[in-house]
Amino acid sequence: MKLKVVILSLSVFAYTGFTAQNIQNNPGSNHGNRFEQLGTILPTPNIYRTASGAPGHGYWQNRADYNITAYLDEDKKNLKGSETVTYYNNSPDDLDYIWLQLDENEHSSIRNSGYDTSSVLHPSTTDQQLKVTELPVKDNGYGVSLEKVTDVSGTPLKYTVNKTMMRIDLPKVLKKGEKFVFKVDWNYNIPNRIRMGGRGGYENFPEDGNDLYTMAQWYPRMCVYSDFQGWQNHQFTGRGEFALVFGDFKVSMNVPSDHIVGGTGECKNYDQVLTSDQLSRYRKAENASEPIEIVTLDEAKKAEKNHSKQRKTWVFEAKDVRDFAWTSSRKFVWDGMRVTIPENNNKVMAMSFYPKESYGLYRKFSTKAVAHTIKTYSEFTIPYPYPVAQSVEAANGMEYPMICFNFGRTEKDGTYSEGTKNGMIGVIIHEVGHNFFPMIINSDERQWAWMDEGLNTFTEYLTEEKWDNKFPSKRGPAWTIVDYMKLPKDQLEPIMSNSENIVQYGPNAYSKPATGLNILRETIMGRELFDKAFKTYAKRWAFKHPEPADLFRTMEDASGEDLDWFWRGWFYGTDPVDIAIDKVTAAVPNLETDPKAAAEIKYQVEKPLVNSFEDLSKIRNREDKNIKFYVEGDKDLQDFYYRYDRGQEKLDNNKQYTIKTEAGLPLDTRDKEKFKNITGYQIDFVNKGGLVMPIILEFTFEDGSKLYDKSAAQIWRLNEQKVSKTYYFDKKLKSIQLDPMRETADIDTTNNFWSSTGTGTETSKFQLFKQKQEGGSVRGGSTGKVNPMQAAGKS
Predict the structure, then answer these.
(1) N or C: which end of the chain has fewer CB within 10 A?
(2) Distance between CA 305 and CA 323 in Å, rounded?
């Protein structure tokens, strides 16, 4: 009869299960409810939003279509506009009024949001800040000047402006299924965004006397009316971004005739605004696999010298977008190429607009980065649905449907640093990626910055990795968030905080949620489960208005993983990860049945293991034969494969630990020879940080070989403060490294290492014994499997 023993040669064995005695030794006082369900923390499911995270059968959202004309006065730095808005009430509610956003009031000294911040005296200041305080505050001349607000027949409508918001009182109740058409005429003085800040405005180039305009938040825009909030009419302070409704746009921009214009959607009259040579190049670029200059560098330099007084009107149209932005300048070089999205065979024009100051970088990289981004995001979310994707160099970073503004200028001699190049590529990927979050998966940025910035930063990281396996990503890998998580508790805030109230905005809205998703993908769920669930969320909520609960529930619904503990800890809490190896206890077999009590090996860190660290994602990506990097990297490292074990056994120093045969038969000489080199190790861990995570171990043996093991985070479910893991190896263990690839964001790695040479402690022995089994039958004797509880002498 085949003996079935506990030890497996050159593999890891861990006991599973938790006995009544363990429960008695680990009372309920150790619980912080980290594994309890979120329950009432999440909104109650209803006919609009289901418990699965999908839109319900009663889901609805309102819509707004725009027809806009704009006149850019370059001399006066003024924009004059007129819009006709058709607003559709698809909600079950009767509406007495509607709300619009007047975002340009951000720049007004008297009509801004009024959200003051604390200020102190500084030893140095700028000339712009050094102004005599005048009370009461005088009007600085910026902000929206409303000229006319009427219904479609021209009858004036009653309206009220409250800082950056405008309420229009409807002449009659707008019922479900009805639409309301109204008109607004307005103008505003365009701010110098380099001096005054903000997303929209102009930048002046004093060397050639020209301007570059980024026209954003430039028209009165409808607020969102939703099932979960009603009107989203929180004031615009300049930080919290936008909640917007989908619709169709037709926009005509009248600009100086020597300007080049790029905008959301497709231009409908290139044949009227481009020269014959430029139009010919555009047609060629439509089928090119490499970027072609549509407006050349020489043409841009020539245009800079003559400021035309003639005018041209550019006409753009866009369908199913939540916003419209545009850019205009005579300084622009313009290039483009065609990129095909395999998932839907969508042929997209990828294009870039940039001044000569950016030529050395943008000509080489920008349009290619645009193409790479929409292709990669399409793999991880939904196929890119729009006809164009554009990058504009404007010394800043901001995103809108099908167009975004980025930085990336060379030195005057055309040279640039690696830091500038990588920063430019990273920001292009990030801002183009915003086409997916939130331009398509249309979350409420005014309330939840992380739902667009965090999800987008995570997907940006995946895209950077596929651009270049060695790309120096600053956000996404777990180790990059450690410095933030180390901060004192009074300097940390939950991710689930309103955009306006976050102090550490970058780490909290961008880095921490991106890192959390990466930990889910690489360490907790695995790539296959995560990618399916993430794509499900994107598909479910494309062209809709998702909320956090919709993401949380979908990720669990599509994967079969209970992640409430992770959302609770990572998104709602501020605890860091700090798991420590507390002590290691070793025991060796005494074949003469003369056991000694197990001795304790006290843990100390004298010589912490120093690894040549490389991020786990990079290694896995190199091993994935399906991944083709935009910039080829090395492919010489192997992936790690982990077993998932659960449970805990408490080591009692006064107890004898035994190994027996399944049949209870006596051990013969051959058996003793097999068991004589076995050493048992109990590793005790403590949760010092508070946030639970999987326990990932790298074992190094005296012969130089290594083994890896991972226990899911649920190992902490019965004791959130202390757990133990027991292993039996048939060769001597030299060291143990906890979280060797730094994939859990552990803030203190000095307590993650144990070495057998670090102490002079003595190992003890455990007894191998025989037991005669009455009845003579052996259950499952031919299976070759081990019952770990039986092997441990447990019932």
Answers:
(1) C
(2) 34
